[in-house]
Amino acid sequence: MNAFLAPNDYKSPLKPIWCPGCGDYGVLQALYRALSAVGRPPHEIAFISGIGCSSRIPGYTTAYGFNTLHGRALPIAQGVKLANPDLLVIVAGGDGDGFSIGGGHVPHVIRRNVDLTYLVMDNQVYGLTKGQLSPTSPRGLKTVTSPMGSLEQPINPLLTVLAYGAGFVAQATPADMPGMTALIEEAIRYPGFSFVNIQSPCITFGEEDQQLKAHKARMKPLASLGHDPANQLAALDLARAYGTELYTGVFYRNPSPPPTYDALVRQRQVELQKGEPRSRSRVLDGYLKA
Amino acid sequence: MTEALATPPQKQLAADKTSLITGSEAIAVACKLADVDVITAYPIRPYDTVMQYVAKLVSNGELDCEYIVAESEHSQFEIVKHASAVGARVFCGSSGVGWMYAFEALTVTPALRIPMVAMVGNRALDDPGAFGVEHNDALAVRDLGWQLVWVDSAQEALDTALIAYRVAEDRRIFLPCAISCDGAFLTHSQALVKVPSQEKVKAFLPRYDRGDLLLHPDNPITVAPQVNEDWLMEIRRQTAAAMDRSPAVIREAYADFERIFGRSYGNPFFEEYQTEDADVVLVGMGTLSNPVRVAIRQMRQEGKKVGFVRVRWFRPFAAEELAATLGRFKAVGVIDRDFSLGSPYRSGVLATEVRAAMYPAPNRPPIVGFICGLGGREVTVPAVREMTESVYLAAEGTTQPGTKWIGLRE
After folding, report:
1. ipTM entry
2. Among B74, B207, B274, B358, which lies 20 to 30 A Cα-Cα from B102?
3. Best of A129, A146, A160 to mutate (most B CBs within 10 Å, chain B)
4. Tell me: the pLDDT tens digits for A5-16?
């Protein structure tokens, strides 16, 4: 049994270099609190990220961290989890990392159901490279690469991961710190792949109606709407409102989570160790003609 | 008596305009002047500055092109590759690991004889992370049929982009061309640039005509067939033959450039600085030419006869010509802003190529390789002096190591 770990025990001495007012500060604080509530010591946690402002987050924790390549956080996290299934593995990144350059990995990590927690800090823009169009940029958004407004329909992260079959899908905003902390904790505790889309505003390149003040006014907790998180169809319906409504809370939680990939691998290992070991003669006999 | 034919009056073309722009903006302006049809982008520093300037030109109505921000560099390069196959003039670009992520597309582009022009904002490859310049990104495609050129000023970036279209889209070549611009030092530094008139560019750059290789319903052809050992070697040889024709086409393009724009780059393949009476020379690519020139001027005042050869075109590599030039000196120092781990004499890529070029030459002065300025570290004037000292020692017969790392904390 571990001694009580305070949120500050997960805080590294490295000072974040995000812009003052960035939503990611809130995410980091909520994460410290959620990790403290879960209680796993930092050395049992691996924090994997890609590239982008939000992907700097592993360095600001005392957990093991790997700031990987752009879009490649999910495959690396799967490798980490399968090599050491006892680790608590958290993946973090932005909407560009997760749904553009790394988008190809999302369906596969979900169908494999590797026990990871994926936190996407969705700010609808490429912030680190100074404000280009991102996969979740709303249609019509003016950025440095779309001065006349985007012509493309944005990706809907919630609908996408729900459609791929994720067992835990939630949305949070730093405008509701207790709510976000509880959601991150719940996502970590969910046995299987869990996804939290965090509406984390970009103070420098983001739109005014996407800032925390606007979030506070607009957000609608799903619990207050009487949504049943076990109802996948209702979750899909609510997720369609991404971009128009700011629903917070759990969209979907599989009431009977299927076995995770890591659990299935362990089970197979146990099965293979049962019975007679494969002797050399038994292997060679396999080549004999019947 | 035959009457002498009167020279037709030279048509007066509109004059250049001077603008204060960065290397990246110069490339974007060249895209506008070349009237590029399809441009794709994906953000990565330092290349992303080009895509922003391009977006601005498109939005201002100055550049009429399809502009797509793709979902990754791989898609970015694939989109323009196919646009080019159906007859569009295309532009693309990236930096560092972004360029590497597009590698599969980069490999097939010359193999399909696609005259794509790309800008590489040279950046160190991860890991460890660094935004600064290193040449390994662009050099990674050196064996595949890409024409590779390094520039050292915003003016040269603009001019070379126009020349690159002319060379790449020449029916005798049809190979892609990547223009390397050192990250930050060139991509983000402003300088006064003469922007030529559209009229002059029109006179210099013909329309892209894919001819019989155009992918079109009226011209049913197969692009990228599965040929296996039956035909692969012959097709490879055709690509090699195109690269072999490239030097002559480059020369033609530079000669025409001088005739129409009135600016001369001398020898297109490499530039010589104070080499006429030099005892020893340094060789390098890209913006390190600036501190090298400053250091040479200082050393010349102290009576040291030092020169500099800046390699522009790395592919095709002007081996015979460069070997003949370098054979004039008592010793040669090659500065690499790249590395080639485990290579002969543990040198960088350029030094290895220069040594290979020198082997059949009648005069083979000693060559010292230097690795300097990696990850955006500055190549300083004292560093250039240190390298020159070593080259002098080699000239005097004191054996020098094959490669020295300069400006390294040890």
Report:
1. 0.77
2. B207
3. A129
4. 999 999 999 999
